[in-house]
Amino acid sequence: MVSLFYDELKVFTGNTNPPLAKAIADYLDLPLGKCEVFQFANENIFVRILENVRQRDVFIVQPIASPVNHSLVELLIMLDAFKRASAGRITAVIPYYGYGRTDKKDQPRVPITARLVADLLTVAGANRVLAVDLHAPQIQGFFNIPVDELSALDILADYFKGKGLTNLVAVATDVGISKKTRDFAARLGAPLAIMEKRRLGNNDTTVTLNIIGDVKGKVAITFDDEIDTASSLVNTVEALLKEGSVEVYAAATHAVFSGPAISRIKDSPVREVVVTDTIHIPEPKKLDKITVLSMAPLLGEVIKRIHTGQSVGALFAQRTEGS
Question: pLDDT of 222-265, one tens digit each?
């Protein structure tokens, strides 16, 4: 694998999702780069790169996931370390972009933290960003460096097509995700329904108001970019069953699974929850009804294309034509 512009490709990882980084490196048939990333007793994070990266094409895999603030600072310090080590190009591979939900001023006197994080990443040394299913499309515009956004939509749709389910309906968990859910529905050859809901304040509480579309007698698959506390998911599942859905599955890219999420999913009548490994899921959270799909082949292929100067968009055009 020879780069058109930079020397050897190197993949490094922080401490937030090493299994995903290892799977990406395996796809690329490369060893993971050697790097020490740890915290001193005084909670200061320290990074030491253990190999030469001068003029190398460096990719740092680090979702901004729990512990969110620690993961973010760890990534920033890694970027600075590689910049000071004269890496040729540094790409921040951020499978989950934490703070992405704070993407606009929707209340008086509040920050736009997603923009702040973009500025921090750029100042720290990122030359480009590779992300998966950003919460809002405008986040790409917060950066003054190239941003490639991938989607797990095809991976999730292919999984459900492989199950051989019939009489399906794809359900957007709210109006904001309806455009992506429409694309998900098209991949499945299913109609679209939309859950209308209202978020109450800033405490992650939602109230389901209405279902737009026909779900009676159908197998429903809910679609969202992330599952956080699972409050919205549980409310949606209950509303769908009340409206006559035969059974309900759930699909989402990011398994945030914070707070009571796992207990809520366990107690919910949802048949199966299908997510990806953009966020590492520890063993205690791996229920039998939770299926985890790997993003490593897609991320690995895109990293290879970025490194060799090939089109990333062409990859998705091929997937769309083949679906």
Answer: 999 999 999 989 999 999 999 999 999 999 999 999 999 999 99
CATH number of 153-293: 3.40.50.2020
With CA atoms as reference, report the closest residue to 12 among 24, 29, 27: 24
Sequence-distant (≥ 6) Cβ neighbours of residue 17 within 8 angstroms: 61, 62, 63, 65, 95, 277, 278, 279, 280
Region 20-32: mean pLDDT is 98
Question: What count of residues does the chain have?
Answer: 323
Catalytic residue among 10, 197, 218, 266: 197
In the chain, where the domains are located: 9-151+296-322, 153-293
Verify whether residue 197 is a known catalytic residue.
yes
Sheet strands (E) in the chain: 9-13, 35-39, 45-49, 57-61, 89-94, 128-132, 147-150, 168-172, 192-200, 205-212, 219-227, 247-255, 272-276, 290-293
3-state secondary structure of 156: helix
Give me 93's structure tokens: 């591979």
Topology of 9-151+296-322 in CATH?
Answer: Rossmann fold (3.40.50)
- pTM, two decimals, is 0.93
Report pLDDT for 3. 44
Contact, 229 vs 261, CB < 8 A? yes
Task: Evaluate whether 9-151+296-322 and 153-293 have a shared fold.
Answer: yes
In angstroms, the Cα distances linking 287 to 17, 112, 165, 194, 238 are 19, 35, 22, 27, 20
